Amino acid sequence: MSSIYVREAVENDIETISELVARLKMLNEELDPHFKAVSNINEIAREYVEKAVQDENTKILVAVDMATADIAGIIILRVEDRVFYEPRKKAVITDFYVKAKYRRKRLGSILLDEAIKVAKEMGAGIITAVYPAGNSIADSFYKKAGFKDFQIEKYKPLD
Question: Which domains does the chain have, with CATH numbers?
């Protein structure tokens, strides 16, 4: 994918990134009914992205198609302090989305590689990814990239 480059998000990207985050959350809903998107998903996604852009512990990377100047994909990671464990800093990939026409062309791997570089620059000693348990596409992608099971999160609805 020589016509793609990855850079850190800027204020002018907020609208497009918000749309992609909303798409991701709606895709999560399609894959798993436990991830029911809120009715005002677009508004909430915009607020989320606006805060993330300002947060010094969060980085948003965008993959840009040089031919069209379109944002082809995004990855959002946040660095957290693991107070009780070494390495102390952990990067968490919270959102990762590639537009349909750019899938199966290694763009996800390019974004992930850049996210790993950024995580290291931010002092993280490990990187994790958070996604719905029913997302077999993400599961396969991360396994191929060398990710291993790290932590289990269980839930119980409170009716």
Answer: 4-144 (3.40.630.30)
pLDDT per residue as tens digits for the range 97-153 = 999 999 989 999 999 999 999 999 999 999 999 999 888 899 999 999 999 999 888
- Asked whether 76 and 94 are in contact (CB, 8 A), the reply is yes
Run of H or E residues at 4? strand 4-8
C-alpha to C-alpha distance for 148 and 130, rounded to whole angstroms: 12
pTM of the model as a whole: 0.93
14-31 and 41-54 helices cross at what angle (nearest 10)?
120
96 touches 59 (CB < 8 A):
no
Distances 131 to 56, 92, 97, 115, 152 between C-alpha atoms, Å: 23, 11, 11, 16, 12
* CA distance linking residue 11 with residue 60, whole number of Å: 11
Rounded Cα–Cα distance for residues 70 and 82 (Å): 36
Indicate the residue type of 12. N
Q: 27: helix, coil or strand?
A: helix
Distance CA 140, CA 108 (A): 12
